[in-house]
Amino acid sequence: MKMVSLLLLLLLGLCNAQDGSDHGAESEILMDQSDTEDITTTILRMNNGSTELMLEGDLVIPRTRNAMKCLHKPYNCRWPKSANGNVEVPYVLSSKYDQSEKRTILYAMKDMEANTCIRYVPRARQTAYLNILPRFGCATTPGYVGDKQTVSLQRFGCIDHGIIQHELLHTLGFYHEHMRSDRDQYVKINFDNIIESFEFQFKKFDTDNLNTPYDYTSLMQYTRRALGKGNSETITPIPDASVVIGKSKRLSDIDIVRINRLYMC
């Protein structure tokens, strides 16, 4: 009887770990990012099983880059500049986060502000704003959408400095590095090694590369074995296959340059 009770408690804990809105202490042990796990692996793991239609693993396709090109859209995909020259991005931070989680999110924002003209401001009455809440996974929609924009940062897994900045870069209009238009000069995509049905996450886009070089250290660069069959290599850097990719924990120098060029800081 004791064994049955223990099994029921374990199953209950696993079910609670899938709830994107709130988690107990047990789920922190199950879902938290390991010290050795890279950002890409964590994001893809956290989003595994999401009911949202994902592009690139963590971009929610609206049912309504380097940098994305603002083509054929009813809105400008870049956040507007304020009269003071800064780009103010209003946000609402869910009350379901505890104080430590809120501090981590706010610090990631402050770190992005440090060398750019991006300024994250608490929402007053703005129509367009980031709604940051602990839904399932780590994901958002790309670019400025002119309305409420959900940024999903699940507790016990997504509250990590690099992951937060990665998702915020998406909201500013940036795709993953391996999707940029000139990527074939810098990386080889090993399509035979990609898990079946995930090939679309390695699609090449017509991006605005902002006259910046390909950046293996970008916070937006996938790891070598992202979505690989049996942990096989899906992205091989060229011409030097020994280059380390996808291991950054915060904005790279080139990530900062691109923000400033895209928003004319």
TrEMBL record:
It comes from the Eukaryota. PROSITE patterns: ASTACIN. Residues 66-265 form the Peptidase M12A domain. Pfam families: Astacin (PF01400). InterPro entries: MetalloPept_cat_dom_sf, Peptidase_M12A, Peptidase_Metallo. The keyword Glycoprotein applies. SMART domains: ZnMc. Its EC number is 3.4.24.-. Residues 1-17 form the signal peptide. Binds 1 zinc ion per subunit. It is found in: Zymogen granule. Keywords: Cytoplasmic vesicle, Disulfide bond, Glycoprotein, Hydrolase, Metal-binding, Metalloprotease, Protease, Signal, Zinc, Zymogen. The active site is at residue 167. GO terms for biological process: proteolysis. Its cofactor is Zn(2+). One of its GO terms (cellular component) is zymogen granule. Its main location: other. The keyword Lyase does not apply. GO terms for molecular function: metalloendopeptidase activity; zinc ion binding. Gene3D superfamilies: Collagenase (Catalytic Domain) (3.40.390.10). Zn(2+) binds at residues 166, 170, 176. This is Metalloendopeptidase. It comes from Pagothenia borchgrevinki (Bald rockcod).
